[in-house]
Design goal:
alpha/beta; Rossmann fold; 9 helices; globular; binds adenosine-5'-triphosphate; ATP binding
């Protein structure tokens, strides 16, 4: 199977602010867990939103294909974009749960793209669908909380429920935009463990933006670093040196003690493992 995400010559300019993304070309294969890093404003969230079809690129050309189907090209979404988007789960920094609904009802919302609109609107789900939602909650260790209101949960618990919603949606790809940015270290580790488990056990492709380099380094097989809207590094976590990081972040604070050992290594090296010129 070819890449499940194929981004080619993608650029994005917001108004007169200059390019947020400049001529990005990246392939991501099925089953990869890729960490997207880079300084604030380098374009990480913008890139993720293009892959999910939430934002359209410039009309000058370039586009995104997902799961072998065109998602967008030259600033236009494809006619089948809605269908493709149903196969992508999006995890937000702020969880995006409906606070007044129960945990289970939030997770069942992952099925909205798959059930008739009238059933989804009325919240009528079959027993089998509820079992699927409960199994997803069990997977993230939240089944005991199924009947609580979402607003009663801690941030880390809410993020686990958001992941259970994506599991119930039965997605092929998970895009996670700073999923641990507002969590304490223990909750952050738990959320990253769950994403890693889904990646390794289910073979789901995970593309995750992270500010915490140590988490990106230890959990992700491959690191993509953006700087000023361009790909600055694309390679194995183990090849990411303090010198590269200092260059990417424009700092001198990374040293040999900053990075933990990667928990996994790339099965096959990415072509052109080197910092872009
Ligand atoms: N909707 C928008 N309208 C105008 N400019 C935008 C919009 N979204 C993003 N930008 C700009 O695009 C650039 C990239 O922003 P983006 O949020 O993708 O960066 P980021 O790397 O995710 O940053 P952070 O790590 O702080 O979240 C920034 O200069 C930002 O101001």
């Amino acid at each position: 199977m070819g890449p499940v995400i194929r981004i080619h010559n993608l650029s994005k300019t917001f108004g007169k602010d200059g390019a947020a993304l400049s001529n990005i070309s990246i392939n991501v294969d099925q089953g990869e867990m890729v960490g997207l890093i880079g300084p604030s404003g380098s374009g990480k969230s913008t890139l993720l939103r293009h892959v999910s079809g939430l934002v359209k690129g410039d009309q000058t050309g370039g586009g995104v294909e997902v799961l072998g189907e065109p998602l967008q090209l030259a600033g236009k979404l494809s006619r089948r974009a809605r269908h493709t988007r149903a196969r992508i789960g999006y995890i937000f920094q702020q969880f995006n749960l409906v606070n007044r609904l129960s945990v289970l009802d939030n997770v069942l919302m992952g099925l909205l793209g798959r059930v008739p609109v009238w059933r989804g609107t009325l919240g009528l789900f079959f027993e089998q669908e509820k079992l699927l939602a409960m199994e997803s909650l069990r997977r993230v260790g939240m089944d005991d909380h199924a009947h609580k209101r979402a607003s009663c949960l801690s941030g880390g618990q809410q993020q686990r429920v958001a992941i259970a919603r994506a599991l119930t949606q039965q997605v092929d790809i998970i895009l996670a935009d700073e999923p641990i940015a507002s969590l304490d270290p223990e909750s952050a580790r738990c959320v990253m463990d769950i994403l890693e488990d889904i990646n390794q056990q289910d073979g789901k492709t995970v593309l995750v933006t992270l500010h915490q380099i140590d988490y990106a380094h230890s959990y992700c097989h491959r690191i993509l670093a953006l700087k000023q809207g361009r790909v600055h590094y694309d390679g194995a976590a183990g090849e990411l040196t303090p010198a590269l990081l200092n260059n990417i972040y424009g700092t001198t604070s990374f040293n040999n003690h900053s990075l933990p050992e990667p928990r996994c290594v790339l099965a096959t090296p990415v072509e052109g493992l080197a910092m872009a010129q």
